[in-house]
Design a protein that fits this description.
This protein has about 425 residues and is mostly beta strands. It has 3 helices and 31 strands. The strands form 7 sheets. Strands 1, 2, 3, 4, 5, 6 and 7 form a 7-stranded mixed β-sheet that branches. A 4-stranded antiparallel β-sheet has the order 10-9-8-31, with no helix packed on it. Strands 11-12-13-14 form a 4-stranded antiparallel β-sheet, with no helix packed on it. Helix 1 runs parallel beside helix 3. It is elongated.
Length: about 425
């Protein structure tokens, strides 16, 4: 039974002066801050190379993905890098300024039995002061989670918004020979299989409340909608109407779901409760309506329909059922996802026999193409803070899961080799 063991306690350091930070960040690529990430040192006891290396690897990967920093080469570090110094008065800021660093991360750890205490600090080297710090206490096996949490805190300190690194990515993989549901850290580490249906599992979506996932499975022969609790492993068949029960998506408040049903012969959008009871039919058209995604205001849903010919994006008002067309370009637009901030919708489009990823405003303006090059890029989904996208691509052969910044930069593969991986979904804070 899948279970995450986490006992992390965050102890907020003494309140920092409101201090107007001299470091200001707005968006990736606009201002890359020279950052020195010093390897964490033992606060007491012996050096634990594995703990230090894990913290270093996680922070480096997370902060590099953010696009907000230019990481300095540790080989250039001077003598202060060998000193523990976790207070402003104990740090030789002149040395770090000499290297060009405008921000500095230093930290320390203590391992006592299976308990790990991690102290992490972010400094403004220009202002010679502490910007933020955290103490994490948990099991040694929680070290990656602690490091992801501090990366989130670094982004919050500099931008006002927490990062999405202490979250999870769900996706479908065929590594066992069947299409099963997996869960991994946001950088792809520690993937865990959470279904064993030995059938076809598709289209996961995270509940915005609690640690639950919904997905479609052919376990009982029909494409039915299932719900699974991550911690307990309990699973229930949520919708098993005749025909399709596919592409379920939670309403942002978690009280209702949108999905496609074909119980009456044609594929239409419906709303159901979290107990599976049918609430409302949203569309009624001869075309095929699929791939619903809620607006953050919950009053509209973007979906795909071929009601006017080729598959295009449409938006339906959930109150009065009014439908408007969103895209007019391309012959095949698919799998839209509304951003958590509500300002853009991401989708994939088939052009020249290859799918690429685009975004567009909900009013149909300012369309932008984000991906280029070989291979299909499909099934895009947003990070909970709207800064990043996760998607599947077959650019190197088999389908794999990738993440990138919202401007299309910084793309990197996160799923392990073996089988095809597709249909990703990004959780909220974990």
């Amino acid at each position: 039974m899948f279970r995450i063991l986490i006992t992390v306690f965050l102890l907020l350091l003494p309140t920092l002066p409101a201090a107007a930070a001299q470091i200001e960040v707005s968006a990736p690529g606009q201002q890359a801050i020279p950052l020195a990430l010093n390897r964490f040192l033992p606060l007491q006891g012996a050096v634990d190379q594995k703990v230090a290396a894990e913290v270093d690897q996680v922070l480096k990967a997370d902060l590099d993905l953010s696009g907000l920093f230019r990481l300095l080469d540790p080989r250039a570090y001077l003598s202060d890098a060998e000193k523990l110094g976790l207070t402003s008065t104990a740090i030789d800021f002149a040395q770090w300024r000499l290297l060009g660093a405008e921000a500095l991360i230093k930290g320390a750890y203590t391992v006592e039995g299976d308990t790990l205490t991690l102290e992490a600090r972010l400094y403004d080297t220009v202002g010679r002061r502490l910007l933020t710090g955290r103490r994490y206490v948990g099991k040694v096996e929680d070290v990656r989670r602690m490091a992801h949490s501090f990366a989130d805190q670094v982004l919050k300190s500099l931008t006002g918004e927490s990062g999405p690194f202490n979250t999870r990515i769900a996706y479908i993989s065929t590594s066992t020979g069947h299409k099963e549901l997996y869960l991994a850290e946001v950088d792809g580490h520690n993937p865990i299989r959470i279904t064993n249906h030995r059938s076809i599992v598709l289209n996961p979506d995270f509940s915005p409340v609690g640690k639950e996932l919904i997905f479609t499975s052919y376990k009982e022969g029909n494409p039915d909608l299932y719900r699974k609790e991550i911690y307990s492993g309990q699973e229930a068949r949520l919708s098993h109407q005749k025909g399709l029960n596919i592409s379920g998506r939670y309403r942002p408040d978690g009280r209702e779901l949108a999905l496609t049903l074909s119980k009456d012969g044609n594929s239409e959008l419906y709303l159901i409760g979290t107990d599976g009871r049918l609430h409302k039919r949203l569309t009624d058209n001869w075309g095929i309506d699929v791939d619903a995604s809620w607006s953050p205001r919950e009053d509209e849903i973007v979906f795909v329909s071929d009601r006017q010919g080729n598959p295009h994006l449409f938006i339906v008002n959930t109150l009065d059922g009014a439908v408007r067309r969103l895209t007019n370009t391309g012959k095949y637009n698919a799998t839209p996802a509304w951003s958590p901030k509500g300002d853009r919708i991401v989708f994939s489009r088939l052009e020249g026999n290859i799918f690429d990823i685009y975004t567009i405003r909900p009013d149909g303006t300012d369309e932008r193409r984000l991906t280029f090059g070989p291979g299909n890029k499909e099934h895009p989904r947003w990070s909970p803070d709207g800064r990043f996208l996760v998607y599947s691509s077959d650019e190197t052969g088999n389908k794999a899961i990738y993440i990138m910044r919202v401007d299309g930069s910084g793309s990197r593969r996160i799923s392990p080799p073996g089988g095809d991986s597709r249909h990703p979904a990004w959780s909220g804070q974990w």
